[in-house]
């Protein structure tokens, strides 16, 4: 233990001997810097009880290199690349001893990058920092059992406004309903079925006389729910019903269509043909629910039709207001 010269905030140094060179020279290891002689002496006493690990001097960079040499052999290349991308930012601390790094150091990097990186990238940085500290704790690179990486706080995810089918899209679809498969998209837009439910609808569950379809099955509330057939799509449903096949929508030979097949070979090509944006199939469900909500239909009734048990979740997730509607509302003031 000794005191450094000059005006220093922490002048007292607690130092131990980690070993000897072949020439017989002592290998010093500094435990830390302290404000008082008593604090330095207590640090030495604590070190006798719980000796400093031989790896205690490893830097953040050395910890990453040691960890990655083991980890990267066990994970997929894509995951490796994502960790390497995260390390480009965390490496700003590479010269610091791992035992000196705290959450505040890591948080500063996250906060600085949050202005230009998405939450997914920031989350990957937190994951990497957490894994590095987990390794450091296990290998006695740090004395603390606290994982400072896991304490990083990420910015709240921004809720994206979902894009819906517009009235213009509806007009295009109806004007081209004679083109193969276009009517199937309209049926989805007026029933709210998920794509997996839609392609699985059995003709035995289609009641043209009562203008009802019974189907669905993702959730308990959605199983065998009753969906009225809207007058605007009744002829389309009737046309498909008259064809051969057990399911309402099927291939020309009557065989069933999978959700992936419909999405890849029917839905997207049809939208492209009509020059409508490549909105995902689930957008038909979002649009259906939103239009019902905008029309003033009771939320509980909507939930029954689309198979939701949580009305609040449904409204928060699906009842989107587009900019045009908001503008029109403001103009009425």
Q: What keyword list fits this structure?
A:
disordered C terminus, three-stranded antiparallel beta sheet, mainly alpha, single chain, 14 helices, DNA polymerase, domain 1, 333 residues, 3 domains, hpI Integrase, Chain A
- Binned, the helix content reads 40-55%
Largest β-sheet summary: 3 strands, antiparallel
Q: How many DSSP helices?
A: 14
Outline, from the CA principal axes?
Answer: elongated
Distance between the termini: 77 Å
- Which strands sit side by side, in order, in the main sheet? 1-2-3
What do we call the CATH homologous superfamily of the largest domain? Intergrase catalytic core
What is the N-to-C succession of helices and strands?
EEEHHHHHHHHEEEHHHHHH
Low-confidence stretches: 320-333
By DSSP, the count of extended strands is 6
Strand content: 5-15%
What is the C-level CATH assignment of the largest domain?
Mainly Alpha
Instruction: Quickly give the CATH architecture of the largest domain.
Output: Orthogonal Bundle
Mean pLDDT: 85
